[in-house]
Design a protein that fits this description.
globular, alpha/beta, Arc Repressor Mutant, subunit A, 5 strands, single chain, 14% strand
Amino acid sequence: MKTDTIFYTLLQNLPSVLFELLEKSPQLATHYEFSSVEIKELARRIDGVFLPKVEYPEDPIYFVEVQFQPDEDLYWRLITEVFLYLNQYKPDKSWQAVVLWAKRSLDPGIPFAYQTSLAAGQIHVVYLDELTDTSSSIGLGIIKLVVAPEDVAVQTARSLINLVQQADAANSRYLLELVERMLIYKFSTYSRQELEAMFGLTEWQQTRFYQEVEEETQLKTKLETIPRLLKMGLTVEQIAEALELKIEVVRQALKKQDRQD
């Protein structure tokens, strides 16, 4: 799973974390809807846009960019996308751009042209590895987990799980699911069983995400079995019946195998 996907999943499910990063009240998240917006001129989408709800007309639009690799053109590209969005949708609102760098050394600096043409503070820059006290925030704790070195990440994950388990029952299940996604991303070389043992997780098998991962794993195993069954003389229909798959799925798998060969 890509790092930007991880962060957009986090922002979509826990939007209050953006305002915590900006050192604002997490309650501001209730004023916004997080969305993905198409820019026709670029034939692409801006994935991180916080649009104020109609009852909060004075609040600005937030455009969010997450960057974990060096990118000399990031600011130029981001501001171009912002102005194309403003031209396309013509919102009667102010705006702010937020850039979340994994670490300070990746940041080439805001171009001089934008320093002089944009309002002071209109581009907010946050260095995620410099976050300090995240012990009371699940959202910031998740970010800390993603950016932490692996030797530190284990203890960070354990503290985060304890924090999630203390949340009210209505929120703990979906928060646990978010943490699971981060654990699988961060410790991608470990098996599910190893992660369960490392972090004392016993209830994550009940979450939707875990079930989806298990189903994907089972499907991958079945698809890898198809060529062997074909070599054994089974027909496409017999393979589909034996593996409990649709005939079209089997055919597509065989076509993909032929292209790879």
